[in-house]
Amino acid sequence: MERNIPKVFESTTSEPEIYKLWESSGYSTPEKVEEYLRENGLNVEKPFTITLPPPNANGNLHLGHMCGYSFHDAFARFNRMTGHPTLLVPGKDHAGIQTESAFTKVLQNNGEDKWEMGRDEFYKRCYDFCMQNADNARTQEKNIGLSADYSREFFTLDPKLTKIIYETFYKMYEDGMVYRDKRIVNVCPSCKTALADIDTDHEERRGIFAYIIYPLIDEADKQLAKERFGVEGITVATTRPETMLGDTAVAVNPNDPRYKEFIGKKVLLPIANREIPIIAEEEVDLETGTGALKVTPAHSPVDFEIGKRQGLEIINVIDEEGKMTGNIPDRFKGMGTTDCSRALCGELTELGLLVRIENIKHEVAVCERCGTPIEPVISNQWYANVEPLAKKALEALHNGDVKVIPEGQQKALEFFYENIQPWCISRQLWWGQRIPVWYSGSKKLHDWLNENQGKTVGDFEKEFNVKANGTGEIKLGEDSPEGIWEQESDMFDTWFSSGQVPFSTLGGPEGDDYKKYYPTQMMIHARDILFWWTARMIMFGLYRTGEVPYSTVLLTGMILAADGSKMSKSKGNGIEPNDVFQKYGADALRLWYYSDALPGSNAPLREEKIKGNRNFVNKIWNASRFILMNIEDEEIEKIQGKEVADTDRVKATKEHIEKVGKYLEKYQLNLGAETIREFFWHELCDKWIEEIKTEIKDQPVGSDLRIEKLSELLWLLKKNLKIMHPFVPFVTEAVWQELVKLGLAEGVLMVEQI
User: pLDDT-based confidence at 77, cuts 50/70/90?
Assistant: First the structure.
C-alpha cells in the first residue's frame, strides 16, 4: 500500500492551500450553508451573524487584531457546524484622524506637503493609500483562518454606508438631538482638530508649579490677607501660568477657614488688570496647592463646569493652533503657550507677584497620533445630545436584552450611560465623511448669530464691516442649495459611522440582508473601546431600528509584550504576526490565545506556550496519519458503510463533544481549548489507539474484528476532528481532506455537522 500522506504538517505551505479550499467551497456565505443543509436533509437553525470590528485601513494588522479574529472565527465555525447559516461581515474602517495623520507622515517622508496638495487631491490619494492597506489586512485576516464572507466586505466610506450615516444625522437633527454649540473640547494644535478622549494619551512630562499672588481690591481685605498670609492677596498655584490671562474667578472651598471671609470679595488679575470675584466651590480640594483655584472656563474642562454653575464669563485666550489670542495685551498675542508662560513669569517676578516656581513631573494629555500636548479650547462644534439614547440603552441592559461579558464591564457600561455627556461629533479633518450641512452666507455668520441671541444680520455686518450675503440659516444635504451657501468643512467623528455598522453594513433598515440577519448575535472586541464603540452601537441600534444590535458583548483583553508592557512600535517590543505564522502556524497561535486571553483580561505573549501548541498540532497530524496508514486499501469499502457500536469509547466521545459544545455556548473558549487538547492527546492517542492496536494485533487484513475496531477508531477520529475544528481549523481540515482522498469522508470539514 502506497499512501502519499506527508510525514509532517507544514503550516506555511498547507494553510494557504486549505484557505483556498474554503474560499472555493463558498461556505463562508450563509446562503451556501443553508443550501448545503437543505440538500442534505439537515435542520436549518436561525442565522448566526457577527459584524467584525473593522481594522483601521492605515497599516498592517497587529497581533491583537489577528488573535481577536480567532475568537470570532471559533464561534462562527461552531455555529456553522451546528446548523446555523453563518455570516461574519468583514470590513475596513477609514479611521479619520488616525489615517489622516498616518498618510500625512507618508507624504512628509516623500517630501510632499498636505496643505500645498489641497483637500480634494489629498482625499483621493488617501483613499488609494487605504485601499492598498485594506488588501494587506485582508491577507492577514485570512492567515488566521477567518471564515468571513468577503463578498460582503465593507469600507466605512462606501457611498451606501455614507447614505445611511447621513440619514441618521438628518433624523437626529429633526428630533432636536444634534446642534452646534460653543463648548470646551480637546484640540491638537498640530493635527488642528478636536479630539475625543480616546484619541489622547497621558504621558509624564516635566513642568512647573507657579505660585502667583492675585492682589485683593479692598484695602481692608488686603490688610486681613497680610495678617493671615503675609501678602496682600490670594496666592494661587498653577501648572499653566499662560491661562491666567483668561481667568474669570478664584474658587475656594466654603469650608476652608483660611478663605471663608474672602468669599464674595474681588481680586485684581495681574497683567490683564481685570477685577475677578472670589467664589465658593465645594469641589475645591483644600490640600491641593494653596487651596485657592484660579478658574479659566475657556481652557479647563473642570473650570468650564464651574463657570457654567457660577455664570462666569468665558474668555478664550488660546486658539486651535496653540497660540495666544483674544482680549489680552498685544505683546503676548501670537506667542506659543510655553513662551507666553515664561514671559508672564518674568513680568510677575518684576511685579513681586511670583512667590516661587517648583519644577515637577506631572501627567499631561497628549495627542495619541503625534504626541503634541492637548489644548482644552472653547470652540464651535457639532454636538449630539445622546442622553435620551443612553436612557434606552440603559433600559436594554437592565432588561437583559444585552449581556456584557465579563459581568463587571457591564456595570462599567451602565455607569457610562448614567453619566453621559454631550458628544462632540465634528472633526477638523480632510479625511472622512463630511457633515452634510450648508450655511447661508457663511459658517461664521451662523455661529455668531447663535452666540449672540437677539442680534441681527445687520449687527453682524456692522461689527465685522462685511456684507453677510445670507441669513445664517442652515440646510441639510449633500448638494448646495441655490444662492450663496458655505459648505461645512468638518468631518464626522469616526465613531459616528462606526457606531452604526451592525445595521449599515447590512443595507440599513430597508436592506435585504438587514431583514434576514439583523439583529446580529454577538459583538467581540477589546475591552478598551467598550465606551467608544459598543456604547454607541447599542444607542444607534435602538434609535434607528428599535432593536439592540446584538444580545451578547464579549470583551477580550489586550495582547501585551512578554514583559507585560503594551506592545509599541516605538518601544520595538511588537511582534509581527507573519513571524509567528512562519514559525508556528495559525492553529498554534489561536490555541494560545484561547487558553491565555480570558474575557476582559490582558495576555502577555508567551512564545513557549505557542511552541507547545505547535506540538499539539503536530500530534493531531501524526496520530491521524498513523490511523490512516494502518487502514489497508481493501478495507476501505467495508469501513465506509460500517455501523459503529455504542462502546464505552463512543459514549465518552459523545459526552466530550457535548461538554465542549456547552463551553462554546457559554463563551468559555479557554476551557474548550484545554478540554479538546486533554481528550485528544490522553484519551484518543495515549489510551484508545493503543487499546485498539492491541485488540487487532495479529488479525488478518479485512477480518471482521479489524473492520469493527478500525471503523470505531475512524469514527472517534472524525468526531474529534469536528469538535476541534472551531479551535484549530487548518490542521483538522487538512486531515479531513486526507480522509476524503481515501474515500473515508466527503466534502469540506468546515460545514460538517458536529
Answer: very high
- The cell for 625 is 496519519
Chain Cα centroid distance, residue 370 = 19
Looking at residue 168, its amino acid is T
**Under DSSP, is residue 231 helix (H, G, I), strand (E, B) or coil?**
coil
296 contacts 244 by C-beta, under 8 angstroms: yes
- Calculate the alpha carbon distances from 425 to 169, 348, 375, 380, 665 in Å: 10, 40, 18, 11, 37
Residue 164 above 90 pLDDT?
Answer: yes
Report which of 134, 126, 129 is spatially closest to residue 155, judged by C-alpha positions: 134
Structure pTM? 0.88
Q: Which residue has the higher pLDDT, 64 or 475?
A: 475
Whose CA is closest to 587, among 732, 735, 751, 747?
732
Do 642 and 711 meet the contact criterion of CB atoms below 8 Å apart?
A: yes
Paired with 292 in beta bridges are: 252
Q: Any bridge partners for residue 375, and if so which?
A: 187
Query: How many contiguous H segments (helices) and E segments (strands) does the chain have?
Result: 27, 25
d(CA 14, CA 372): 47
Q: What is the DSSP string of 388-433?
A: HHHHHHHHHHHTTSSEEESHHHHHHHHHHHHT---EE-EE--SSSP
Q: Judge whether 556 and 222 are in contact, CB under 8 Å.
A: no
Nearest residue to 275 (alpha-carbon basis) of 311, 303, 248: 248
Q: What is the mean pLDDT of the chain?
A: 93
Residues 572-592: pLDDT tens digits? Answer: 566 778 888 889 999 999 999
Cell matching residue 181: 454649540
Sheet containing 200-215: which strands, arranged edge to edge?
233-238, 200-215, 354-367
Contact yes or no for 493/425 (Cβ under 8 A): yes
DSSP 642: P
Which H/E stretch holds residue 212?
strand 200-215
Strands 274-280 and 233-238: unpaired
Q: How far apart are CA 14 and CA 394, in angstroms?
A: 48
β-pair type (178-188, 193-195)? antiparallel
CA distance 411 to 407: 7
Average pLDDT over residues 529-538: 94
Per-residue pLDDT of 420-479, as tens digits, reads 989 999 999 999 999 999 999 999 999 999 989 999 999 999 999 999 999 999 999 999
How much is the pLDDT for 552? 97
| Cα(608)–Cα(504) distance, integer angstroms | 42
Lowest-pLDDT choice from 78-87, 554-563, 644-653? 554-563
C-alpha cell at 718: 472524525
In angstroms, rounded to a whole number, what is the distance separating the alpha carbons of residues 127 and 266?
56
Asked if residues 97 and 195 have their Cβ atoms less than 8 Å apart, the reply is yes
Give Cβ neighbours of residue 579 (< 8 Å, ≥ 6 apart): none
The number of residues making up the chain comes to 754
Distance CA 209, CA 356 (A): 8
Can you give 68-113 as a three-state secondary structure string? HHHHHHHHHHHHHCCCCCEEEECEEECCHHHHHHHHHHHHHHCCCC
Per DSSP, the residues of 280-340 read E-TTS-SSSTTSEEEE-TTS-HHHHHHHHHHT------B-TTSBB-SSS-GGGTT-BHHHH
Q: How far is CA 693 from CA 5, 649, 704, in A?
A: 20, 14, 15
Helix (H, G, I), strand (E, B) or coil at 60: coil
The b/e string for 442-479 (b: 16+ C-beta within 10 A; e otherwise) is bbbbbbbbeeeeeeebeebeeeeeeebebebebebeee
Quick: pLDDT tens for 304-356.
999 999 999 999 999 888 899 999 999 999 999 999 999 999 999 999 999 99
Give the 3-state secondary structure of residue 521.
coil
Beta bridge partners of 521: none
pLDDT interval class at 570 (50, 70, 90):
very low
Instruction: Output the CA torsion 409→411→416→418 (10° steps).
Output: 170
